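Re: [ENG-882] Designed sequences occasionally contain unexpected residues at chain ends

Forwarding the minimal case from QA. Structure tokens:
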């Protein structure tokens, strides 16, 4: 789904697609947490379990 988004859907996104499309879950969560900590994130969308794991990783 992410690969088929129109360009305007990716203008204000974090993390970039290379991280979002990673298969290795543990590495993906670590890279997402380390990337978004430097961003002004005002909205989080996605699969509920993925959001809760990211929240836990970013609070550590």
């Amino acid at each position: 789904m992410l690969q088929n988004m129109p360009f305007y859907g990716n203008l204000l996104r974090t993390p970039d697609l290379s991280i979002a499309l990673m298969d290795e879950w543990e590495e993906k969560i670590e890279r997402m947490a380390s990337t978004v900590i430097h961003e002004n994130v005002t909205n989080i969308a996605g699969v509920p379990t993925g959001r809760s794991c990211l929240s836990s990783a970013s609070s550590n």
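QA comment: On inspection the terminal residues look reasonable. The two ends are 30 Å apart (CA to CA). Proposing we downgrade this to a documentation issue.
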